[in-house]
Amino acid sequence: MSDADGGQAIILRDGRRLGYAEYGSRTGRPLFFFHGFPNSRVLGRLFQQAAARRGVRIIALDRPGFGLSDFMRGRTLAGWPDDVVEAADALG
Predict the structure, then answer these.
(1) What is the number of structural domains in the chain?
(2) Rounded CA separation 18/62 (Å)
């Protein structure tokens, strides 16, 4: 799944969608970008040129309930790292 600004989504093991976008160098060293509240993965676009110049692949995730990501019932702060690990595994 993707949207007009290049955002895409992966399906997590629990069936939720997790939205993300990639900026910078597609073959660069991966760096996860986590937006604050309120915002979305699109904030990572601000670093597109700097990341490309430095050979960095920014993977900007939408937190649960924001952007392309589904809301997570019973969400706790401890659940977010599990989503990030799943994204890292899925995106290589």
Answers:
(1) 1
(2) 7
